[in-house]
Amino acid sequence: MTDSSRPAAPTRTVVHLMRHGEVHNPHGVLYGRLPGYRISELGSKMARLVADHLAANDITHVVASPLERAQQTAAPIAESHGLQVVTDERVIESDNYFEGMTIGGGAGLRNPRHWPKLVNPFRPSWGEPYDAVAERMLAAVGDAREAAAGHEAVIVSHQLPVWTVRNRLLGNRLWHDPRRRECTLASLTSLLYEDDELLSVTYSEPAAALLAGASKMAGA
Q1: Rounded to a whole number, what is the distance in angstroms from the first to the last CA of the chain?
Q2: Dihedral (C-alpha) 165, 170, 173, 177: value to the nearest 10 degrees?
Q3: Which residue from 97, 93, 131 is spatially nearest to 115, judged by alpha carbons?
Q4: Alpha-carbon torsion (84, 88, 93, 96), positive or negative
Q5: Which residues, in sequence order, are bridge partners of residue 161?
Q6: Helical segments of 109-211, H only
Q7: What is the largest CA-CA distance in the chain?
Q8: Mean pLDDT, to the nearest integer, of 157-161?
Q9: Rg (the chain; Cα; Å)
């Protein structure tokens, strides 16, 4: 006979936030949300390596940004678990005024006519507010956690959205130095929940062995 008065065991759920693999970007374009930027051959290897790393995990839900690089990165993970990739606009790259420009050069970031967009790094003035990024990512994480309750979910997104929601969850400030983000290509930021309580945030780099060969122009 079971004791009906005994409280039910808490439900543990993991949501892995993954940054996509390396992108083919030979001209160093800040591509942001521009279409047509796909993962490189190395990026494909990264995606497969992470899929192999997660093959034994109890993954029941895979989500990706609508951008090609995220969809391609998510595909091997979904395939290895017999799942379809769910597209979620809320985990897309952040909007950026400098989208389409190249790094450096008089026509790009160093042009004085663009400097007014750099006056407020706390919002930031050049793109989507950090608060807005955090809120849409939190909503997506909540839905993924519900869809995979008692199991694991993977959300393939982009560096800034992953880093921003991580900071929000940990109670850290949202504005930051982009050079200090702990979110390398194909990395995993894993959120462990017990019912509605966040127990831990852990970070790992399953594709670390391939990072040395990645281009500095891989983007977000």
Answers
A1: 55
A2: -70
A3: 97
A4: positive
A5: none
A6: 130-147, 159-170
A7: 77
A8: 97
A9: 18
Three-state secondary-structure class, residue 68 = helix
AA letter at 113: R
Distance from C-alpha of 8 to C-alpha of 175, rounded to nearest angstrom: 40
- For residue 62, the one-letter residue type is V
In sequence order, which residues have a C-beta less than 8 Å from that of residue 180 and are 6 or more positions away?
none
For the segment 107-143, what is each residue's pLDDT rounded down to a tens digit?
456 677 776 777 777 788 788 999 999 999 999 999 9
78 secondary structure, DSSP code: H
Q: CB of 74 within 8 A of CB of 49?
A: no
Query: What mean pLDDT value characterizes the chain?
Result: 91
Does the pTM surpass 0.85? The reply is yes
Side-by-side strand order, sheet with 12-19: 85-87, 59-64, 152-157, 12-19, 188-194, 197-204
Query: Can you list the positions of beta strands (E) in 76-219?
Result: 85-87, 152-157, 188-194, 197-204
Q: Tell me the pLDDT band of 106, cut-offs 50, 70 and 90.
A: very low
Q: What percent of the chain has pLDDT over 90?
A: 72
d(CA 135, CA 30): 24
How are beta strands 152-157 and 197-204 bridged, if at all? unpaired
- Residue 156, helix vs strand vs coil: strand
Q: Which residue has the tokens 């494909």?
A: 44
**pLDDT 10s digits, 57-97:** 999 999 999 999 999 999 999 999 999 999 999 999 999 88
